[in-house]
Amino acid sequence: xxxxxxxxxxxxxxxxxxxxxxxxxxxxxxxxxxxxxxxxxxxxxxxxxxxxxxxxxxxxxxxxxxxxxxxxxxxxxxxxxxxxxxxxxxxxxxxxxxxxxxxxxxxxxxxxxxxxxxxxxxxxxxxxxxxxxxxxxxxxxxxxxxxxxxxxxxxxxxxxxxxxxxxxxxxxxxxxxxxxxxxxxxxxxxxxxxxxxxxxxxxxxxxxxxxxxxxxxxxxxxxxxxxxxxxxxxxxxxxxxxxxxxxxxxxxxxxxxxxxxxxxxxxxxxxxxxxxxxxxxxxxxxxxxxxxxxxxxxxxxxxxxxxxxxxxxxxxxxxxxxxxxxxxxxxxxxxxxxxxxxxxxxxxxxxxxxxxxxxxxxxxxxxxxxxxxxxxxxxxxxxxxxxxxxxxxxxxxxxxxxxxxxxxxxxxxxxxxxxxxxxxxxxxxxxxxxxxxxxxxxxxxxxxxxxxxxxxxxxxxxxxxxxxxxxxxxxxxxxxxxxxxxxxxxxxxxxxxxxxxxxxxxxxxxxxxxx
Length: 515
Ligand SMILES: CC(=O)SCCNC(=O)CCNC(=O)[C@H](O)C(C)(C)COP(=O)(O)OP(=O)(O)OC[C@H]1O[C@@H](n2cnc3c(N)ncnc32)[C@H](O)[C@@H]1OP(=O)(O)O
Ligand SMILES: CC(C)C(=O)C(=O)O
Fold this sequence. Notes:
CATH class of the largest domain: Alpha Beta
Radius of gyration: 33 Å
Distance between the termini: 61 Å
Subunit structure: Homodimer.
Number of helices: 18
Domain Pyruvate carboxyltransferase: 24-275
Helix content: 40-55%
Family: Belongs to the alpha-IPM synthase/homocitrate synthase family.
GO molecular function: 2-isopropylmalate synthase activity
Largest sheet: 8 strands, parallel, barrel
Strand content: 15-25%
Oligomer: single chain
Shape: elongated
Bound molecules: acetyl coenzyme *A, 3-methyl-2-oxobutanoic acid
Keywords: Acyltransferase, Amino-acid biosynthesis, Branched-chain amino acid biosynthesis, Leucine biosynthesis, Transferase
Number of strands: 16
CATH architecture of the largest domain: Alpha-Beta Barrel
């Protein structure tokens, strides 16, 4: 499939004249900024497991943690570096000697050192003036380089810093020997155009590779990262599932797929592993994924609407801009209130039923009606539900052959009444009315029917199974009846257990009595 940059007129026109790179480096910070998600705390074992998976996924850099923060954090980073992975292993450090020393002690490939540069952070947080910050930044970079370690330097809150001062900071760290610079949008206040502009401005004055780190406070982290790439950034900081401080960071899976499928820019990511890694992160961090999460969410490739399902069944691209297999997902056709006949026919084929062969047009229409009825009650319909409905409908004796018909049933139950059922049946057109009591409403209803039919047909077995979960689940009743030398087993499904039971018994009686 061609990237949209080569295939979509609007995108082609809008990107005209822009020089885009062939490859972008993915700097994964799931284990550092991702772990800063409030409430998330990973054990060293969990961090190692995640690092191994990130390495297999193909990220270029794993920011394994902030080693000064705790003994466990330092131990985890040391264990990760000892595994000699392909990915570059990085640790975070303030521009403070003790932070850097602990990071050095972890044997990392890279130290990501940072100091805030914005007026707000200078005045209220660091209580340092511009010159002090320049000096601290240079000292830290030189100290790390003296130890022969790669340095990535971040000007924290870069996007709220005066542009001229920000460029000055990056220039002095370049002179001090930094290997690359990172531009953090620490509180996510950028828009894509502004990010593109800022990166272009920095690039005019600094020749180091440029990285970006975008937060998602306005939901723009991915868009801003892409804006930065349009401006000339060569590396993007991401976290799996977009976890991180507050509203999180740029989601790795979204950045990677946008780069690949829209811009035609490669990363080292093995995209087919994305869903598996996303689920691992969700499991270990305890942060549940929203179902509509792009790329890796449960619904990212699910279709319920009749028009959409018909479209994708005819040609996947109509409603699937990304082939699901590329990210380790698969298409799901969900049945419910919005379902159309094409989707139901497709589901029936999967379950072994073909309209016009083993299911009639009439029965097919009844299946659609029953599925929509369940959908109207707000329920999701599973394959088991469909199977039960189809069996219920296809195995029913045809109208003309039916001898016994249920005209009415009413049940009464409660804590201060004896469960009672009143039933009106017609047998060969003649009307019969009776009431019976039982241990519960189902028992009373079946006893009422039996009292009309007589002893010649006996209920031998009764089983009930709730197919879907919940109090409004579809109940499947299976009964065995014996009489007139015949034995029949019948299934019936209904959201109401009394109706499912009565329908099964009446159907069984008809099968036994059928001429
Ligand atoms: C934008 C980001 O995501 S940055 C990373 C944020 N991550 C974390 O903070 C997680 C791990 N942090 C921790 O475990 C602790 O905060 C530590 C160990 C780093 C520091 O703990 P403490 O010394 O108790 O300080 P505390 O966290 O309360 O305050 C931060 C201190 O760092 C200072 N600081 C922040 N950045 C820098 C810097 N680049 N250079 C020097 N000092 C800095 C603050 O001004 C403050 O200093 P103060 O104690 O002199 O007022
Ligand atoms: C350390 C820096 C890059 C950071 O996490 C931020 O600014 O959000």
